[in-house]
Write a structure and sequence with these properties.
about 575 residues; 4 domains; 21 helices; 18 strands
């Protein structure tokens, strides 16, 4: 475990899970003891520090509720009474600060770290190290959970929504305690400190991202920074140069998933440092950046480094099978394509007065061309890449148009229509829209002299009759050879397999070409002029500032592009 944490290689993959009380009892009945971590070969031991209760009578904390007799009151003063017989280890929770006014929250006897606890932890961690085990300090209920357990979720959420000082005081006091705990763990030499605040539901988080950024992110950052102040080697970095710090931290593989503007610089730095790379799509927003990634990919090939990008269709089994059939001539010679992706609007951020230009643009990156490349590059690249895969060549020209009707922020379009022209005369029409309240759908039709391929797994004859369809298994059938692994998982399987076997995988050149195709179409739409492949390959267009700082970003107005020239009166 410790060798893995230090980036010194590994022979097994570390795992961690915790059994509940009833599971531990079942394990003990079967094996005679409760040391399941030894049984399963875990390379660490998790633990929590002793915490000082700063109250004498827990029941006195409940000023507006009479709690049941069997209630257990923890160090925070939170009550836990037995649930129904079907609840197993789950308990009913009682909130001591529910209904409390500000002064009661201020004067509440919050828990603290007892004197001498650091020394106790140091001795325990030393003992774990002597056994070859890593120490795993578990800080459940770091900020959010402890706070709402004390106040109740509905009242704390209401306080936060209303900007009530009660929320600020409670969250700050719990954060102070969390900082004291993490400082003690770090000073004692813990190898891993796990923060635990569950804000998830089955489908999303229980608050929107700006709300989390306003109330919880700064407080969790304070906890992390407290640990880093004790141990600067903590592997968490902030700032525009943090990518280099990650690369220099001893990793073997980097995942580049920032806004796409930064991708070329990050790719170059990673390859120069001899790191394997996963690079999310698109790999650039302009021709200068795309060519930089192409150069880096050639260097990666010479060094035996793996590079995998996030355009997933080329690793998706149903798409792969269809492409192989097309390549084998089952629809004849390709004579055209029709590619459409119509969907709803993406998320956006409205500017807050305290944000600088840079902060606003970064928070709203999906709506600025210099950061995202516009949605034809940032999102529609999936479908254009699938088409390019079938075509097997790059176009010689793009003719495009587009516009903006509903987008609220940023400098981008919300619809594009582009025709790509190939050297052999083949023409492909590609269109994308991001507007709410319209008819949505996706089309990926490759047209041949003998039929049509639907890229996702279907072939039709020239009369529209189905002649083949990908044999997708019945739901629940996990044994079929036709199962399609989630492509967002498969791309990482391919990457890790390439690294482990030494059989290099590198799809960078194909993704550079697909990215350049989207840029070509975008420029054609923005300008209203034909754009050739030669022009794109030789363009010195670079989007965005050359240096990064939180302040003004001159020269990038929040205005949509206008094609052509203004009409004049005659």
């Amino acid at each position: 475990m410790k060798r893995t944490l230090r980036r010194e290689g590994f022979s097994t993959v570390p795992l961690d899970y915790v059994l509940c009380d009833s599971q531990i009892e079942s394990f003990k009945e079967k094996h005679g003891d409760n040391e399941y971590q030894d049984f399963f070969g875990m390379g660490h031991r998790s633990f929590e520090m002793n915490v000082k209760k700063n109250y004498s009578d827990g029941r006195s904390l409940f000023k507006r509720e009479i709690v049941p007799e069997d209630t257990r009151i923890d160090e925070y003063g939170i009550g836990h009474s037995k649930g129904s017989e079907w609840a197993f280890h789950m308990t009913r929770m009682h909130h001591p600060l529910k209904g409390a006014e500000l002064n009661e929250i201020i004067d509440y006897p919050y828990p603290s770290v007892p004197e001498g606890e650091r020394e106790n932890l140091t001795d325990m961690i030393t003992g774990l190290h002597a056994r070859g085990l890593a120490s795993f300090a578990f800080m459940q209920m770091t900020v959010w959970e402890a706070s709402w357990y004390m106040r109740s979720m509905e009242e704390l959420m209401t306080d936060m929504m209303m900007e009530d000082e009660r929320a600020t005081v409670l969250l700050d006091r719990i954060t102070e305690f969390a900082c004291a705990k993490v400082r003690t763990y770090t000073e004692a030499g813990a190898d891993i400190v796990s923060l635990g605040d569950d804000i998830g539901t089955q489908e999303s988080i229980m608050m929107d991202v700006p709300f989390w950024e306003r109330w919880l992110k700064p407080r969790l950052s304070k906890v992390i920074e407290t640990a880093r102040a004790v141990n600067p080697d903590e592997k968490c970095f902030l700032g525009f140069d943090s990518y280099q710090k990650v690369i220099d931290s001893g990793v073997d593989l980097v995942l580049l998933c920032t806004p796409p503007h930064f991708r070329p610089v990050h790719v170059e730095a990673a390859i120069n440092a001899r790191k394997h790379v996963f690079m999310e799509k698109p790999i650039a927003v302009d021709p200068v950046g795309a060519r930089s990634v192409l150069v880096a990919s050639k260097m990666a090939e010479s060094l035996g480094l793996c590079m995998v990008s996030g355009t997933v269709r080329r690793v998706q089994k149903d798409y792969m099978t269809t492409q192989m059939k097309v390549a084998n001539g089952e629809i004849g010679e390709i004579v055209g394509a029709n590619i459409i992706r119509n969907g709803g609007a993406l998320w956006y951020k409205t500017r807050k007065p305290e944000w600088t230009d840079m902060e606003y643009m970064l928070r709203n990156w999906a709506n600025f061309c210099w950061l995202s490349g516009d949605h034809i590059t940032e999102q529609f690249i999936h479908e254009i890449d699938a088409m390019s895969w079938h075509m097997g060549r790059t176009p010689v020209k793009a003719v495009g148009w587009g516009g903006r009707q509903r987008r609220i922020t940023g400098d981008q379009y919300d619809f594009f229509s582009v025709e790509y022209v190939y050297e052999n005369g083949v023409r492909a029409h590609c269109a994308a829209r991001q507007i709410n309240g319209c008819s949505n759908g996706k089309v990926e039709r490759i047209v041949g002299t003998k039929g049509v391929a639907i890229a996702s797994g279907q072939i039709l004859d020239v009369y529209g009759n189905e002649v083949w369809k990908y044999p997708k298994p019945e739901e629940g059938d996990t044994q079929s050879k036709w199962n399609v692994t989630n492509p967002f998982v498969q791309e990482h399987i391919n990457l890790v397999t390439g690294i482990r076997t030494g059989i290099t995988v590198n799809d960078a050149e194909a993704q550079v070409n697909s990215t350049l195709m989207t840029i070509m179409g975008r420029i054609a739409a923005y300008t209203g002029k034909d754009v050739t492949w030669e022009e794109i390959m030789n363009s010195d267009l670079y989007l965005g500032p050359k240096t990064y700082a939180f302040g003004p970003v001159p020269g990038i107005p929040e205005e949509r592009p206008l094609a052509g020239e203004e009409n004049s009166l005659t």
